[in-house]
Amino acid sequence: MNYFELYQIPISLTIDPSVVKNRFYKLSRQFHPDFVSQGTEAEQDEALEISSQVNQAYKIFQDPDATIKYVLKLKGLLDEEEKYQLSTDFLMEMMNLNELAMEATDKADKEKLETSVTNIQKE
Predict the structure, then answer these.
(1) Which residue in 1, 9, 54, 111 has a CA-CA distance of 20 to 30 Å to 60?
(2) Is the pTM of this model over 0.85?
């Protein structure tokens, strides 16, 4: 299970911080090892593993660069061991998206940004 599935959010380069925070607290309460201390050893181990994944996902989702890196790995576009060179077109698209994000002030700007991100994700 990937972190987006765990948090039950769609795969995206940009994630609403309030949604992440709410899901983090919900999942933390649900899978905290202290809440299954009376369970079987297998249940305790599973809770510990999921709790660890919840924390790691939260850490990644808090950092936009880490989120992008995680999405690229999920899509098979990034290999940790491999030295890679991103295409100029891709880098330009990312720069344009960053500019749109920084300049987005109204609903129309935000919708344009979301449309651009969605189009990139479909590629």
Answers:
(1) 111
(2) no
